[in-house]
Specification:
Layout: E1 20-22, H1 24-27, E2 31-32, E3 35-40, E4 43-46, H2 58-62, H3 70-76, H4 80-87, E5 91-95, H5 108-123, H6 131-155, H7 159-184, H8 192-206, H9 211-223, H10 246-252, H11 263-270, H12 275-290, H13 294-340, H14 356-363, E6 366-367, H15 371-377, H16 383-388, H17 397-411, E7 417-418, H18 420-444
Parallel strand pairs: 1-5, 6-7
Antiparallel strand pairs: 2-3, 3-4, 4-5
Helix pairs in contact: 6-7, 7-8, 7-13, 8-13, 10-18, 11-18, 12-13
């Protein structure tokens, strides 16, 4: 793979007339922050300037600099005809006829079969959303919000009723998190602009967060899941070491920001309790203010205006703040366990340049489907199908799951399915395993 380093006589790289003919060796030279090329369907594009204006952020497109980005482009853009008009001015040429379509360690047969599979399920209508499903989901979120407020307004603010109110609000917040995730992935409406608008409403007005913050973080995660230095979800800022590679690297370098051999214990103090109420809130504020995203800030403020209007008359200002923090605390536990059990115990490593299916399956696993598991996780128990087809409406994951598993079996790609309890316990056991690897490397290497 990679074309064997052949060069061709061609137009200058910056001509922008689309007349160049390039080898993979030439393309792979352009993968720095200030010089980025990528390949989509054998066409070579110079995205150096465009990456700064990319709606999904510069990092997510920059991760594919010097690579074939065809599979990622297909996965993230439901309306490719509309998006391609932005690509046309960036076209500088194409791969030489003697060059393979893929770079690195990517399996051409898997890529072709996955593309055929995707085309087939598109024809079957499995990328079309059911409006009633999402209307009912939004309805039950709003109903929970209303019941939470009515409970303490009508019956009083005793400790028991306040706890019941907090549980209903936390449930509403968790479910709103799954709904904003649907809109953020453009999986509900045919037109992207309607998904973007609904996303801002749900994540901003119903949850008090920012669409731009979520987009830039979450799309990076999907583009390169569990890849160190690229997936923000495995960037633990030195608080945890993950997988089997990073702990050894830290140990050899004698890095000890924390007692990592105890991380499976302090995870319960620093992970689930603090991620949403502290880390996410600080990140959201930083992103909105530093990037001057006043639209997201307006949606964010509308959440708190509505919240304090409802609860200050009942609890006072400081009581309302305390209630909100407690709700975030409860929601954070829910969010952390659901999102981490699909990824944290899986392979976490540096970039290996795998094809889309292999890369996603190495980083994700599923949790057994059931009515409760589907609702509890927002259908993210079908994490494999979601990562392969992020724009597919979640109510269709169960329909494609058996066929995805068959495709994986065909190529010997492990397709992992766990019980909910096994998924949760694997988070803790994987942290302990990584901590032990660090300690061994720290003491003996």
């Amino acid at each position: 793979m990679g074309g064997g380093g052949r060069h061709t006589e061609s137009a200058e790289p910056d001509r922008g007339d689309g007349a160049g003919v390039y080898t993979w060796e030439e393309v792979q030279k352009h993968r720095s922050r200030n010089d980025r090329w990528l390949v989509i369907n054998r066409k070579v594009y110079n995205i150096t300037q465009w990456s700064k204006r990319h709606p999904g952020g510069s990092h997510v497109i920059g991760h594919y600099a010097g690579e074939d980005a065809t599979e990622a482009f297909t996965a993230f853009h439901p309306d490719q005809k509309s998006v391609k008009k932005f690509l046309k001015p960036l076209l500088i040429g194409e791969l030489a006829a003697t060059e393979p379509s893929q770079d690195g360690n990517k399996n051409a047969a898997i890529i072709q079969d996955l593309e055929t599979f995707r085309t087939q399920v598109e024809k079957e209508g499995l990328f079309r959303a059911k409006p009633l499903f999402f209307c009912l989901h939004l309805g039950h979120i709003l109903l929970l919000e209303a019941l939470a407020w009515l409970t303490v307004w009508y019956w009083g603010t005793s400790w028991t009723l306040t706890l019941l109110c907090a549980v209903m609000l936390a449930t509403s917040q968790a479910q709103a998190g799954w709904l904003q995730h649907d809109f953020g992935h453009l999986s509900v409406f045919k037109k992207s602009k309607w998904n973007h608008l609904a996303h801002k409403f749900v994540i901003g007005h119903l949850k008090g967060a920012a669409a731009s913050w979520w987009n830039h973080l979450h799309y990076n995660h999907h583009a390169k899941p569990n890849i160190l230095s690229k997936d923000p979800d495995v960037n633990m800022s030195g608080i945890f070491v993950l997988g089997s590679v990073q702990p050894v690297e830290y140990g050899i370098k004698k890095i000890k920001h924390m007692p990592y051999n105890r991380q499976h214990q302090y995870f319960f103090l620093l992970g689930p309790p603090l991620l949403v109420p502290v880390v996410f809130n600080l990140q959201v504020l930083h992103v909105m203010i530093s990037r001057r995203n006043w639209v997201d800030l307006a949606w964010y403020l509308s959440f708190y205006a509505r919240y304090f209007f409802c609860y200050v008359p009942l609890y006072g200002f400081f009581g309302s703040v305390a209630l909100n923090i407690f709700v975030r605390f409860l929601e954070s536990h829910w969010f952390v366990w659901v999102t981490q059990m699909n990824h944290l115990p899986m392979n976490i490593d540096h970039e290996k340049h795998r094809d889309w299916l292999t890369m996603q399956l190495q980083a994700t696993c599923n949790i057994e489907p059931s009515f409760f598991n589907d609702w509890f996780s927002g259908h993210l128990n079908f994490q494999i199908e979601h990562h392969l087809f992020p724009t597919m409406p979640r109510h269709n994951y169960h329909l494609v799951a058996p066929r995805v598993r068959a495709l994986c079996d065909k190529y010997g790609v492990p397709y992992q399915m766990k019980t909910l309890w096994r998924g949760i316990t694997d988070v803790v056991s994987s942290l302990k395993t990584s901590g032990d690897l660090w300690l061994d490397a720290y003491l003996h290497k």
